[in-house]
Amino acid sequence: MLYTIHLQDMEFRAYHGCYDLEQKVGNRFNVALKITTELGVVADEDAVEKAVNYLTVYEVVSKQMAVTQRTIERVAQNIIGAVKAQFPQIVEIECTVAKLAPPLGGKIGRVSVTLKG
């Protein structure tokens, strides 16, 4: 049996961007994950040690957000790879990375990408 875990509205200050200024001054980013994983005995045995640990997932995302990249596509790809490496029971991850108030020359709330892996 499969189940889905949602981690939403994780907010970080990071230095991703294609412009030098973005990599110097940074910006706010929002990350959301939708993780599909095998249930196994997690529910039957109430086995938290066999579950995908939400705190560990958050820590992995936080570490990846600290690695400056030029594109948010690369950031999302790195997050997916790192989380799946930590939890091999994961079947699929959908990762959305949004740059809040991006410097596009006008008022815009966010720009985001979503990758599945």
Overall description:
The chain has 117 residues and is an alpha+beta fold. The protein has one domain (2-116): GTP Cyclohydrolase I, domain 2. Helices cover 28% and strands 37% of the residues. The protein has helices at 20-25, 54-65, 72-86, and strands spanning 2-14, 27-38, 90-100, 110-116. A four-stranded antiparallel β-sheet has the order 1-2-3-4. Helix 2 packs antiparallel against helix 3. The longest helix has 15 residues, at 72-86. The two termini are 19 Å apart.
Order of helices and strands: EHEHHEE
Distance between the termini: 19 Å
Domain unit count: 1
Number of helices: 3
Strand-pairing-aware structural class: alpha+beta
Q: Whole-number average pLDDT?
A: 94
Question: Biggest β-sheet: count, sense, barrel?
Answer: 4 strands, antiparallel
**Strand residue content:** 35-45%
Give the helix proportion (percent range). 25-40%
- CATH fold naming: GTP Cyclohydrolase I, domain 2
Task: Give the low-pLDDT segments.
Answer: none
Full CATH superfamily name: GTP cyclohydrolase I, C-terminal domain/NADPH-dependent 7-cyano-7-deazaguanine reductase, N-terminal domain
* Large-scale geometry: elongated
Give the strand tally.
4
Summarize the structure.
This protein has three helices and four strands. By secondary structure, the chain is an alpha+beta fold. The protein has a single domain, classed as 2-Layer Sandwich (GTP Cyclohydrolase I, domain 2), CATH 3.30.1130.10.
List the helices and strands and how they pair.
Blueprint: E1 2-14, H1 20-25, E2 27-38, H2 54-65, H3 72-86, E3 90-100, E4 110-116
Helix pairs in contact: 2-3
